[in-house]
Write a structure and sequence with these properties.
Blueprint: H1 11-21, E1 28-31, H2 33-46, E2 50-55, H3 62-70, E3 74-77, H4 80-87, E4 96-98, H5 105-113, E5 118-121, H6 124-133, E6 138-142, E7 151-153, H7 163-175, E8 179-184, E9 189-191, H8 195-215, E10 221-223, H9 239-254, E11 260-263, H10 267-270, E12 274-284, E13 293-297, E14 317-318, E15 325-331, E16 340-350, E17 358-362, E18 383-386
Parallel strand pairs: 1-18, 2-3, 2-11, 3-4, 5-6, 6-8, 8-10, 10-11, 13-15
Antiparallel strand pairs: 1-12, 7-9, 12-13, 12-17, 14-17, 15-16
Helix pairs in contact: 5-6, 7-8, 8-9
Length: 387
């Protein structure tokens, strides 16, 4: 069966988006700003004790950053380009964390000169860079976590280090005149196994205790990263369930007097706020006896849907057409054979879907327009509108 729209978005919100977009040339992304505020407020309510650092990479649009600034949100930054954009909005550098563990020494210096004093790290070389370019700054060490099998979009291996190395780095940071501030981890984006936080928090507890007992270093902060879900086809628990369990894990490990807790949401705030509007370019079969039609749309991997790589993220699709459905293969418009979005997972789309019909990709507010290529095959970047 095709999706039920109301499982993902109110009919009223969708009709407002559809009316707004009827006269615009596809493909483009429409962001419902009320949904962003709703998701942010739910996160704050669920974690009243936590500081929110929005992961700017999820969607760095000026319109979004301005809204979040006005809600007194902090910002997790990954590059000098993101930093300049955030600072241009009058956001204080003390509300910014340089969360990328992979950075040039000159970029560290630039952040420091602009007033940023909190840096993520996971290696000795980076610690030494920070000590030279940003003396006296706070550092937090990112550890590896085991969320790779249960997150739709894993973020381990490239980032983080083992717990024993993290302790060595904390001690080195102190010796180099930096302020050992905390530990961070990321259990993977769109993480559906809440137990992944339990395992990571357990590691953090051991690190806190050993550094205090053996080296007299008292860490002050735990950065839980992101990982909270948007509403895709593969279901996850409600945010309230995540919050209840994660709060329990924290209190079991650290008691009632928790360290400072930081969250770095991106997808969970932005994902459900977006609808990507595309058009069917071509419909074909590969043989007279082929069981599945190929549906080619004017949006693909290179125009914002890179998270369909490996069919990892399964967006809800809505056409508005009624009647009998069949399983299809969905591909993008470019001259690249990698631009096939869903082949193993078969979406069921209406048999009467026709060329020039529109397909609405729900829950596409995060990691779409920022992944859009500049000019592959000459296609322009994905446009964004805010309503």
């Amino acid at each position: 069966m095709p999706i039920q729209l109301e499982e993902y978005m109110s009919r009223e919100t969708f009709e407002r988006i559809r009316t707004f977009s009827d006269d615009k040339e596809t493909p483009f992304l429409v962001i419902d700003t009320a949904t962003i505020i709703d998701r942010l407020e739910k996160l704050i309510t669920a974690f009243p004790y936590a500081s929110i650092y929005y992961a700017v990479k999820a969607n760095p649009a000026i319109e979004i950053l301005t809204m979040l600034r006005d809600k007194n949100v902090n910002f997790d930054i990954a590059s000098v380009y993101e930093l300049d954009r955030v600072l241009s909005l009058g956001i204080s550098p003390d509300k910014i964390s340089y969360g990328n563990t992979i950075k040039k020494s000159k970029d560290v210096r630039y952040f420091y000169q602009k007033g940023v004093r909190m840096f993520a790290t996971d290696s000795e070389a980076d610690i030494r860079n920070i000590a030279r370019a940003a003396p006296g700054s706070k550092i937090y060490v990112r550890i590896l976590s085991e969320g790779t099998l249960t997150a739709d979009w894993p973020l381990s291996r490239k980032f983080g280090c083992q717990a024993d190395m993290a302790m060595d780095l904390i001690i080195l940071a102190k010796d180099l005149g930096l302020i050992p501030y905390g530990i961070s981890f990321h259990v993977g984006s769109q993480q559906r196994d809440i137990g992944a936080w339990d395992a990571a928090i357990g590691k953090v507890k051991v690190i806190f205790e050993r550094l205090q007992e053996e080296d007299g270093i008292e860490l002050k902060m735990i950065n839980l990263g992101g990982g909270f879900p948007a509403n895709y086809i593969t279901k996850a628990n409600d945010l309230s369930t995540y919050a209840q369990e994660i709060t329990r894990f924290l209190k079991e490990g650290f008691g009632e007097n928790l360290p400072q807790i930081i969250l770095e949401p991106g997808r969970s705030i932005m994902g459900d706020a977006g609808v990507l509007v595309s058009e069917v370019v071509l419909i074909s079969r590969k043989s007279r006896t082929a069981l599945n039609r190929w549906i080619y749309t004017d949006v693909g991997k290179f125009s914002g849907l890179i998270e369909t790589l490996g069919e990892a993220i399964k967006y809800p699709l809505f056409t508005g057409k009624k009647g009998e459905v069949e399983e299809v293969i969905i591909a993008g418009p470019t001259c690249d054979s990698a631009d096939i979005l869903y082949e193993d997972y078969k979406y069921k789309l209406p048999l009467n879907l026709a060329i020039s019909d529109r397909i609405y990709w729900l829950s596409t507010g995060a990691y779409t327009n920022t992944y859009s290529a500049i000019e592959f095959n000459g296609f322009p970047p994905l446009k964004s509108y805010f309503i």
